[in-house]
Amino acid sequence: MNKNKYPKLVVDLKKLRHNIDHVLIKCQDQGIEVAGVIKGCTGLPECANQFALAGCRYIATSRLEQIEEARNFGVQSDFMMIRIPMLSEAADVVRLAEVSLNSEMKVLEALNHQAGLQDRRHKVILMVDLGDLREGYWDKEELLQAALRVENELYNLELAGIGTNLGCYGAIAATPEKLNELVECVEMIEEKIGRELEFVSGGSTTSYPRVLEGNMPRRINQLRIGEAIILAKDLQDLWGFDMSDMHQDVFTLQAEVIEVKEKPSYPVGQIEFDAFGNHPAFEDQGVHKRAIIGLGKVDFAFADMLLPRDEDIKILGASSDHTILDVQNCKHDYKVGDVVEFDLCYATIVYATNSQNVDVVYI
Ligand SMILES: *Cc1c(COP(=O)(O)O)cnc(C)c1O
């Protein structure tokens, strides 16, 4: 196979390690452990390994396949399953992960049963839904009863803590007040079981602003962080935090130019439907120099979310396997065979790392 094959995703492991170390230190200073979340880059084992080498307490992901791959690669760490498990995967959750997030008694019973069969003790963190309306107990009494049941009856499980997730579905902000609701829940449970819980898991990247601002409620002692480490973009672009001490170019997507021509900017003929059944609109800007690269929606899903490093490039659109660039105003004279580089965001990196067509190389 051709070694110099495009598209290519270049991963700078030193920059990744810098970002991991940086977030770990900031969190440690406030008594917070970091579970390093690797699902954003589809669990690339070399990346997972950097989290382990940096000393993350757990490596976390939403997919068991990624945990298995990391283990097979030789990543030395404990692992956390952060998507509440399917009933059908209970055996593998116990086999592959030391701890999992949970919100259903039927699954907890299955985990307990499997842990017994495998002669293991599996830690569980009960999830509390504080209003984002994805996973977690909504009813506080149900939460308490679940905690008591795990504590007193499910002997192969260890009630390790409670957790929450914010800003994923309902776009709810992880304010100090919201996170204090989680602290109230943990105190309610601790009072009834008569001991302190190990983890109060306060969320993901969306909770990291509390660390940056120094207003995290004191009982929160764990965050599960992916995006703020691997991309470090959302908190800057969406929330206005200064992330300039982080590398935002750990990942570079490279694609090869396969056609360069001057063409009209307005399609010629009767406009009906594009490759995905949309009825597109165009602006006539006259004849422009355009380049096509060998990369398409199959590889990144959202053309408007690709970020060309050459700021004079405009992305016109894409179909499954072609992406069309307006290079009219570029200082560089693009030619067939040139390589164009892009920064990625969370939405595009998950696709790029899942695409079989994108070769991953490490520097
Ligand atoms: C994805 C996920 C995270 C990490 O999210 P980031 O935005 O990458 O920090 C943490 N917890 C849960 C439950 C998740 O699903």
From TrEMBL:
Gene3D superfamilies reported in the protein's UniProt record: Alanine racemase
Keywords: Isomerase, Pyridoxal phosphate
Residue ranges constituting the Alanine racemase N-terminal domain according to the UniProt record: 11-230
GO annotation, cellular component aspect: cytosol
Gene Ontology molecular function: any one: pyridoxal phosphate binding
Keyword Cytoplasm appears in the UniProt entry: no
InterPro entries referenced in this protein's UniProt entry, alphabetically: Ala_racemase, Ala_racemase_N, PLP-binding_barrel
Entry-linked CDD domains: PLPDE_III_AR_like_1 (cd06815)
Keyword Nucleus in annotation: no
Entry protein name: Alanine/ornithine racemase family PLP-dependent enzyme
Cofactor needs: pyridoxal 5'-phosphate
